[in-house]
Amino acid sequence: MPKTTNPLLKKSGPSTNMILSIVVVVAALLVVGGILLYSAGQKDDASQGGNGAPDLSTVVAHPDSNKLSESPDGKVTVAEFLDFQCPACWQYYTGVTKQIEEEFAGRITFVNRNFPIAKAHPLAESAAKAAEAAGVQGKYKEMYHALYDDYSAWAVAPDGQNVSDDEARAEKVFDQHAQQLGLDVAKFKADQESQQVADRIKKDQADAKTAGVEGTPSFFINGQKWEPSTDKGTTYADVVNQLRDKLNQELAK
């Protein structure tokens, strides 16, 4: 199992390394640069967020996006761009997002978008296909949880330190989860290789590029990029507290 890392210092991005460290300050500068480029020529103040950055709400989340939870009033939407084999994403899942999903269930809309980084994580796209194929049968959320809860069974190499590239082992695990979730396994396997699933993943990747996403996990709250601050702590508990505070602020508006 990859060892746990500082959540504020680790993020996976497009690199040939198996596990890529991204310093938050540098990532923030890259994102700001992307936002400035995106917003160049934007004249309409109504399209801008409260902090002067562009409102990317319609880019990072769509009505048909996969959702972990949904709020009836649609007041607060969290969008996460993730890579299922990314160690940082798995660590965020275990240390942050799973707790937030449970705590704010029914109060926020929590959207998942795919951003598999194949050079760093050779099974990431296969896992994304498995999740999307389960979604065709209405079981995206369940497969999402199964993939992360069973991360070590398919995503980690036998040495326990690096990510795996064993496609056959991963497919066996995905099929087992499909069966356990009560899916039509034959349809599940066919949908994994379907144009419908491929197009959804490509659309997520294109939207990620438009939004200036550089690595995973990347979060947007009501269309605004969100990152934790090192000034407020460097543990996963600190990140949970920061994210909770931000969501409660948005809910209180």
Automatic annotation (TrEMBL):
Keywords: Disulfide bond, Membrane, Oxidoreductase, Redox-active center, Signal, Transmembrane, Transmembrane helix. The keyword Signal applies. Residues 43-72, 208-233 are annotated as: Disordered. Residues 47-206 form the Thioredoxin domain. The chain crosses the membrane at residues 18-38. It holds the Pfam family Thioredoxin_4. The keyword Membrane applies. Belongs to the thioredoxin family. DsbA subfamily. This is Thioredoxin domain-containing protein. It comes from Saccharopolyspora gregorii. The lineage of its organism: Bacteria, Bacillati, Actinomycetota, Actinomycetes, Pseudonocardiales.
